[in-house]
Every structure is written in C-alpha cells, then in structure tokens.
Fold:
Amino acid sequence: MKRTTLSLIAGATALAAVTGFAALAAPDGAAAPEAKATTRLPVERAGLVCPAPSTSEVAETQYTSYTPTSTAAGRTAGKAEQPTALLRTAANAAPADGTAKKPKPAKAPATVTAPGKPVTAEADGGSVPAVTGAATGALAPGWTVQQTTVVPAGGARGLLGLSCGAPDTDFWFPAASTGKDRQDYVHLTNPDDTAAVADIELYGPEGVLKSQFTEGIPVPAHSTVPVLLSTLTSQPAQRDVTVHVTTRSGRVGAALAAADDKLGSDWISPAADPAGTAVLPGIPADATAVRLVALAPGEEDADLKVQLVTASGTIVPAGGGSLHVKSGMTAAADLPDLTRGAVGSLLLTPSDPKKPTPVVAALEVVRGKGENTEIAFIPAVAAVSARATVADNRAKGTTLSLTAPGADAQVKVTASAGSEGGTPVSKTVTVKAGTTTVLTDLVPGGLKGSYALTVEPLSGGKVYASRTLALPEDGTPMFTIQTFVDDRGTVEVPTAHQDLGVLD
Structure:
C-alpha cells in the first residue's frame, strides 16, 4: 500500500486507493455522489529494503531477486532499477563539522530483467551494508528479494533468512529479547530522500519496559541505524519482549536480528497487524522446542484458544490449549512435543468468539539438541489474498506449508524457472478445512540454481503459508522460515465516470 505509485491515469483516485479510504465532497445542497465501482490495476513501482545481513567476517550472503509472471493486460515494458547500496550508515554519516565522508561502495543485489526468472548475487563478509531498491513497470507487481545468509561459526552462527520488506510506519516484533544470552538488534533503514524519525517501545511480561533513547531516533535519508535492544532499558534482562516500531515522520524498513549464544541466530520479520485471530504456519516436524509469545496491545485482556492445525485436522496440543494475555503485557508459553513428527501450524482464536481482542504473536522454534541447535521464528501472518512469493528455494531442503483453518481452499502453486536454468511447473492444491498441507517435491524441471515459489488462491477459504529452508552445516540443522506475505501487486482504484451533461 505505501510502496505503490500509480500512473497519472489513476489521477485523483490514487491517494484514496493507496490509503484505503476516500472522502467525496458534494456541492452545498447536492446529494452525495453514489459509490462508484472499483477495478484493480497493477502497481507501477515497488520498493523494498534489505538490512545489513551480518557483522560476521565469515558470513556468506545470497540475494535472490524475482518478479512472478503476470497475466494482466495492457502492461507496458519496464525495468527494475538497480538496488543500490546505501550511501550512509550510522557509522559513516556526516560529522558535526559538516564535512562528508566518502561513501563506501558495495556490491548490490542483481537486477531482474524479465518476469519469471530469479536473478542472484553474492556478497560475503561482515561489512556488507543495507541495500534498497525499486522495480518499475512490468517488473513491479510482486517483485520480491530474498536475503539468505550462512554464518558457519561464531556467536551469530546460523542460517538467517529474510524476505526484504516494504518501507512502512508501524511494525510489531514479538519474541524479541533483552537477555544476556541474546544480541537482538532492530535495523531501521530509510530508503527515501528525506530523514525519518522513529520511536521504539518495549513490552515485557510486566508491561512497558522503562527505556531510554527510544523516542525520536533519527534515521537520515538513505541510511540504516541498528539499535541493540539491551541498551534501551535499565530494567532486568527479559527473554519475552515485544518490540513496537513506529515513525513520527517519514517511513523505514524494519527487521529484527536475533542471535542466541547457544541456539543460533535468525531474523524476526514483522508480525501481522493486531487481530482477534492469529495463524502461525509451518512449524517443522522435527522441532525440539516451540515457544509462543503474544501481546494484547489494546486496553482489554485476551483469552486465547491455542490449537494445532495438522495434516489430519485441528487439535488441542497437550498441555497448551489456552493462553491468557494481559493488556499491554507480553505473555509466553512453552509448547513441548508440539508437532510430534509432523508439520503443523498454530491457530490462535478468542476463547469467547464475542470478545475478539486483537493480539500480535510469534513463535520461537528450535531444531536440534545440545550444541547442534538452530533457531528460527514464525510471526503471525495474514492470509494470502491475491498472490505471494518467497524466493531462494533449493532442490533439497525446501518445505512449503499451506494452512486453511476455516474452509476448504484451492490454490495454485508455481515453482519458477531456476536462476541458472530449468522449466517452471505449477500445481493446483486443495487444502481441506482445518488442515495443513505440505509440499516438498514441487521443483522446476531440470533445475539449476535456486527458484521462487508463488502461491495464488483460486477458490474457497483463507490460506496461510510459509516456507522452511533447511541447509545443514557440520551436524547443525540450520534452517530458516519465511511466511508468505501478499505481494500487493495490484491496487484497487475507483472507476472514473465522466459526466457529459451540458450546463445551462
């Protein structure tokens, strides 16, 4: 919504379409105009932000850039603008004397040249900066960039995956920590030509954490600011923290990097906006520990029914069928032996359907045991309404989870051509009501390189999806999970009707 720019043809309707509301004024004494029909048009510009991938010198990062094919008529040819390395970071911004330091050049992600084929690029080491970019014309609808980083050793060891996000003004991150065993950074990246000002709020198990330096954080134009959570509060370290990022002016891309000294590291993507029901799809079958973290940001407590959506139906997990979330306080619950050898999705609904108190939620998921462990996170996600894509999938180690908690649903799943060769394939999948369907074998024919997975609902109920990528490393079951977020490749625009009446 905030990342789309419509053509001049959309004219006066563009702002209403992007912001989601419109006020149509009528002359004094005249009847209000009738509501006009709407139509959906492909977006003509899409912007994304990728944070700095790692500070580890042994980090290996791959960017995968992809635009799905579209059947929209009337599209004009376009090209993707080169995603560029940010010219300034918090460390090399202009000093107080006004002299500017020379920006450090960096290799940026590859540019997509045609829909339907991923393009990849690599950037290694700990000095790779955040990047931002845009796609225009026929390459804008559904454009996505996946950032995948392998850190084989050290305190930040792990497989870190992130679908680079659109800049916005409001983000929620449950499952963060200010504990001594965690190094959690919120990365704020400003892709625009004007400065942004951000605020960060921290909510612990007892409510708002007393914090400092969290209001009015300046994020200069074309720069990135990483903020270590443990430095923001003087209160005792907390394991279960919910982070709320908002902007007073401008907009930012936001993502949270979590590194656990014992468990590994990964990105926490923003959770879906507060809602009475939450779906967290695609918990791995071999998860050894699962922890649910939730916050009710409003003035009412939330009583949640906790259910596991499996391949055969929806059940109440042993020892964890409910969760009480006090207003403004982060609640958490360990869910031991949750999946029991089968992929599942967590469904949170109000215990009393008449009291759907909005919540935000995320899961902390661990695979492995002892020293060979790895951590990943699953934020609550909205249903795919039109189309969603996750790029950088591999021939081995990719698991797609599709969940239909309410009613039977039918979706089209497409595995794109490979980045270095291969033929795309599509499959129509029916997901029965109250179940989770898993795909592990949908791979392009003759695949070389990595590929993208695109999910498009066809009929029936709501569908929620995630992709797990597993890349074992020296006995450690490294993995990362990305949820499918609707790509907002089209925008609803009221249809204009011209009045050709002749005035007296």
